[in-house]
Amino acid sequence: MATIDKTQQDAEKLAAALAAVKHVKDGDVVGLGTGSTATLAIQELGKMVRAGLKITAAASSIRTEVLAKSFGIEILDLGSLSVIDISIDGADEFTESLDLIKGGGGALFREKIIATLSKNAIIVTDASKKVKKLGAFTVPVEVIPLAYQYVFDQVAKLGGKGILRQADHKTFITDNGNYIIDADFGLIDDPAKLNISLNQINGVLTNGLFIGLTSKVIMSDGTDIVIFE
Ligand code: 5RP
């Protein structure tokens, strides 16, 4: 695997985030993602709100909600929304056909709801996230705790090697009170099929394959902004 220059990667994340927030207009309901790249976009939106931009927002995680509120961004109840004008979120991997793996930060369920409701679902990334085939990054599977062994067994039947996500030497708990199984399927030939198979397992809330949910990926390669749509 190619080594990644962290300073370069951070500069690319910022450039992509700054390009994305230009798409936000007065009056928009904005879906706010989670992770280091989404955070850069939220910080910029915060500055724009302080300068007079009028938006309301839905947050994909508790930490995003706290961050957005710290800038005075009004947060709506995600569950009450039927449509979101625009969302800005990061990704762990994406392909040119706009399939993604997300959920490295554990916020996949709310991120997926936001992407599903968004008229314009924008993903912001550095160049390291672009892949020919998804699967070098494991697929996060959010599982109701009392079904986790069953889900492990079913993931294994689909060819995945699962690990129960840990944080600070404890089982990681999502904002929804669930566990995450990070499943290694190797490079994935048919992500759309795997997405359906995973979601059909009883006890799975959702998984980190985002298929057909993205309007555009805004990527910085350090020199240019490259848009995939
Ligand atoms: C969180 C996510 C993030 O968007 C993804 O992990 C990318 O994060 P980062 O921008 O920090 O690389 O899906 O659940």
UniProtKB/TrEMBL annotation:
The keyword Isomerase applies. GO terms for cellular component: cytosol. The keyword Isomerase applies. SUPFAM superfamilies: D-ribose-5-phosphate isomerase (RpiA), lid domain, NagB/RpiA/CoA transferase-like. One of its GO terms (molecular function) is ribose-5-phosphate isomerase activity. The active site is at E111. Its EC number is 5.3.1.6. Pathway: Carbohydrate degradation; pentose phosphate pathway; D-ribose 5-phosphate from D-ribulose 5-phosphate (non-oxidative stage): step 1/1. GO terms for biological process: D-ribose metabolic process; pentose-phosphate shunt, non-oxidative branch. Keywords: Isomerase. It holds the Pfam family Rib_5-P_isom_A. Substrate binds at T34, G35, S36, T37, D89, G90, A91, D92, K102, G103, G104, G105, K129. PANTHER family: RIBOSE-5-PHOSPHATE ISOMERASE. Belongs to the ribose 5-phosphate isomerase family. Catalyzes the reversible conversion of ribose-5-phosphate to ribulose 5-phosphate. Homodimer. This is Ribose-5-phosphate isomerase A. It comes from Pedobacter frigidisoli. The gene is rpiA.
